[in-house]
UniProtKB/TrEMBL annotation:
InterPro entries, per database record: Knr4/Smi1-like_dom (IPR018958), Knr4/Smi1-like_sf (IPR037883)
Residue stretches making up the Knr4/Smi1-like domain: 38-211
Protein name (database record): SMI1/KNR4 family protein
Coiled coil: none
Pfam families, alphabetized: SMI1_KNR4
Native source species: Micromonospora humidisoli
Record-linked SUPFAM superfamilies: SMI1/KNR4-like
C-alpha cells in the first residue's frame, strides 16, 4: 500500500482560504480552512496505547503529517485532543465513538439498517382509544431506540465529521472493512452504509479527504 503524501494539503487549504468565494463552501465557516497542528510520534504512540488499537495507516499519517483535525469534509474533521491526560475526539457527534470499543471489529461490509425487521409504527385506526394508541406508540419508539441507537451498532467505528441534521461519517478502525469510510444515516432512518468513489470503489480516508478538497477547489474556481 502506497503511503499517502500530505505535503500539498497546507498550500491548497491556504489558497482556498484566500479565495473570495471560500466562505460559500458548505461548512467553511466552522473550520475556516485551518488544520490544527499534527501530532508528534510520541503523542500518537500515547493515543494508540490508550485506545489499545492501531489506527488505519492513511488516517494515522494524516494525524502525523497534516493535522489532528480542522479543515475537512462538511463541518470539518473532529480534532483529536488531550484533556487531563486522556485523548478523545471533539465535535458534534464525536461522542458517538465508543473509545473503549474501537478495537472490537465492526462486522459489516455491506449497508445495513438496525431498524429492519422491527414492527411498523402503530396505526391509530387499529386502536379503540387515543390512550391505547399513545401507549402503543410509546412502546414502539422505546423499542426502536433500544435497537437502533445502541452503541453496539457502531463498535469499531471512529466518527470523524458531521454533515448537519445529525448525519455523520466515520472511519472503520477494526473489522473486515478496516480503513474504509462509512456514513451513519440513522437520523434519516437510513442505517449505515459504506462510502464509494465514482467508480464504485470503497473510499478510504485519503481518497475521502481529497475528494472533498478537490470538490471545494472546483466550487470556488473562477467561472
Amino acid at each position: 500500500m502506497t503511503r499517502p503524501d500530505w505535503s500539498d494539503i497546507p498550500g491548497r487549504l491556504a489558497r482556498l482560504a484566500a479565495t473570495p468565494a471560500a466562505g460559500t463552501v458548505f461548512g467553511a465557516g466552522d473550520h475556516g480552512w485551518e488544520l490544527e497542528a499534527p501530532l508528534t510520534a510520541d503523542e500518537l504512540t500515547e493515543v494508540q496505547g490508550q485506545l489499545r488499537v492501531e489506527l488505519p495507516d492513511e488516517y494515522l499519517s494524516f494525524l502525523r503529517e497534516a493535522g489532528r483535525g480542522g479543515a475537512g469534509p462538511a463541518y470539518g474533521l473532529f480534532p483529536l485532543r488531550r484533556h487531563d491526560g486522556r485523548w478523545r475526539w471533539e465535535g458534534d457527534g464525536a461522542d458517538l465513538t465508543t473509545l473503549a470499543a474501537l478495537g472490537r471489529p465492526f462486522p459489516h461490509v455491506e449497508a445495513f439498517n438496525p431498524a429492519d425487521g422491527l414492527p411498523a409504527e402503530p396505526d391509530e385506526d387499529d386502536y379503540d382509544s387515543p390512550e391505547a394508541f399513545a401507549t402503543a406508540q410509546d412502546a414502539h419508539w422505546e423499542r426502536y431506540e433500544q435497537v437502533v441507537y445502541t452503541p453496539e451498532n457502531s463498535v469499531g467505528l471512529l466518527y470523524l465529521c458531521h454533515l448537519g441534521c445529525a448525519l455523520r461519517e466515520a472511519l472503520v478502525v477494526s473489522g473486515p472493512a478496516r480503513g474504509r469510510m462509512w456514513a451513519d444515516d440513522i437520523a434519516e432512518g437510513g442505517g449505515f452504509r459504506p462510502l464509494h468513489d465514482d467508480d464504485g470503489t470503497p473510499l478510504g480516508f485519503a481518497r475521502w479527504y481529497r475528494r472533498w478538497l478537490a470538490a471545494a477547489e472546483r466550487e470556488v474556481a473562477p467561472g
